Amino acid sequence: MRLAGFFALAAGVIALPVLFPNNYFVIVVGIAAGLHVILAVGLNLLMGYAGQISLGHAAFFGIGAYASAILTTRYAWPALLALAAGLVVAGVIAWLLARPILRLRGHYLAMATLGFGVIAHVIMVQATHWTGGPDGLTGIPPLNFLGWSVNNDLHGYGVVAAAMLLAIWLSLNIVDSRVGRALRALRGSEFAAQMLGIDTSRAKTQVFVASALFAAFAGSLFAHQQGFVSPDSFNLTVSVELVTMVVLGGLASTYGAACGAIALTLLHQGLVVFEDYEMLIHGALLMAVMIFLPQGLFVGLSQAARWAWRTARGMTP
Amino acid sequence: MPEQLLQFLVTGITVGSLYALVGLGFAIIYNASDVVNFAQGEFVMLGAMMAIALLSAGFPLPLAALLATLLTVLVGLLLERFAIEPAAGAPVVTTIIITIGAAILLRGVALLLWGKDFHPMPAFSGDAPIHLLGGSTLLPQSLWVMGVTVLLVALVRVFFNRTLLGKALLACSFNRSAAQLVGINVRVMLRLAYGLSAGLGALAGILIAPITFSSYEAGIMLGLKGFSAAIVGGIGNPMGAVAGGLLLGVLEALGAGLISSGYKDAIAFLFVLMVLFFEPTGLFGHKAAERV
């Protein structure tokens, strides 16, 4: 029962290319949505469960992507090894930052994560020698598993879909683990959690590192899938969009974050036609959801549905 | 070298004055409502863009500046009424996201109205640089920026310390329910705070537009730097925000001149991070006890 949603999602992921065979658009949007789900699910661990905001998460996404890009194009590393190296780099940076950053609360934490995101972006633009500057890096090889190269879009879709399901499964397990319960206690009241004997700074560090790893993982996949990276994919706007996804779906719900990521990806695709209005609608949506449905679209609607179901059942004896 | 330093200092204080005004707006709103308004930078952008539009429609500069400021104040009031008031008592993360949404919305409106181009604005009193000792120069517009900033900061100080209205607003920032109990209309005070800081932002935008030009995205970085100024100064401390803004501006100009201009934003934010790590309540903030 607990995994019913997971299997439904897996079925949907498999059904998509079967229902729309050789449909380039569906596959490409599917890949984008899958990567966004990984990012949102990771960020939700930090924001939804631990109650800590991050306005600089695109930085970790970028660290994963640039690690893959630099190591494969400049040093001819195999793609999988570069992906692993990206995870290590992002994990170490997150671990080093976690203690000083997560000591801060509320607005101070927002400022610090935001500052980190801006600094990372400036480095991506300015360290031309390493990152190729504003133009970015091209010629990143596709992923390669023991000689099987992910060199067409359908294979790419398969890999991203599998990675996405793995991310969701991991997140569900983290949330239900001892660490997950500690995090939820921490979100309620950090002070009370400490009184219960929870090492809150350790719990916060762990979840910060975990969510950075999710983001770096998505970044590596993104780099190998696209074949090129540039700083524009990792700026402040992207960080804010990631927060939007988590909030849109509903904080503290893995499926909610996933739905938020898919919804925003589709919205972007749909709004391409109204290019000039995209920003306006994005802003209005963000405000409206936070004002009228603060627990998020997905969580709010599913609560309403559950309530309707209960009342309907209550009325028919 | 010394004359170069003087040049950096002049640039730094000009930019810093701007950060100070934006930071002051952050502090006023934070004091009144515990909300950090991420749309503060958009007030700056709106002020500049509207002034430019009014100028090109044939209005004289003083009238264009006045109208642009008043229109931005109206936007600030609308923001308070329709976005902040309905979410009263919401957690910090919620209000942060609401104001980020408002910022994106305002940016979207500006994009529709004025497109993606940079819009120039003529300087208030000519472009002929004033020569200082040792070959460094000063634009007349920089004098306008510094002079008006000093005037505005002094006015805000007088407003908070000497007028009944200002003291009432200050009372709200100390304790809202106590303020309500002594007969202060907290709701009106909240609107006053949003209007005041929108007006300060708009004026900052109009002052700097002749130097930097303006575009629909101009508010993003200015807003972030203003927020940094408020944080460095100890959030909710208006004069701390002013000092923080000047400090940030000077550091940034020195960093750009002596280290690398491409990294100037990184240098500014690195400084903010260091302040947060070692002095988490800001350089001039009082050590408040955490409420559980």
SSE diagram, text form:
The complex is a heterodimer of chains A (317) and B (292).
Chain A: H1 4-19, H2 24-49, H3 58-75, H4 79-102, H5 106-126, H6 128-131, E1 137-138, E2 144-145, E3 148-149, H7 153-176, H8 178-188, H9 190-195, H10 200-226, E4 228-229, H11 236-249, H12 254-271, H13 278-292, H14 297-315
Antiparallel strand pairs in A: 1-4, 2-3
Chain B: H1 2-33, H2 40-56, H3 61-84, H4 92-114, E1 130-131, E2 137-138, H5 140-162, H6 164-174, H7 176-181, H8 186-212, H9 218-232, H10 238-258, H11 264-278
Helix pairs in contact in B: 1-5, 1-6, 1-8, 1-9, 1-10, 2-3, 2-4, 2-8, 2-9, 3-8, 5-6, 5-8, 6-8, 9-10, 9-11, 10-11
Would you give an account of this structure?
The complex is a heterodimer of chains A (317) and B (292). By secondary structure, chain A is an all-alpha fold. Chain A has one domain (4-236). Chain A has 14 helices and 4 strands. A two-stranded antiparallel ribbon of chain A has the order 1-4. In chain A, strands 2-3 form a two-stranded antiparallel sheet. In chain A, strand 2 and strand 3 (148-149) form a beta hairpin. The relative contact order of chain A is 0.17. Chain B is mostly helical. Chain B has a two-stranded antiparallel ribbon. In chain B, helix 1 crosses helix 6. Classes of the chains: A mainly alpha (317), B mainly alpha (292). The A-B interface holds A 47, 51, 53, 100, 103-108, 110-112, 114-116, 118-119, 122-123, 125-126, 189, 191, 236, 240, 243-244, 247, 251, 276-287, 290-291, 294 and B 30, 36, 83, 86-87, 90, 92-94, 96-98, 100-109, 111-112, 220, 224, 227-228, 231, 235, 260, 262-263, 265-266, 269-270, 272-273, 276-277, 280, 290, 292.
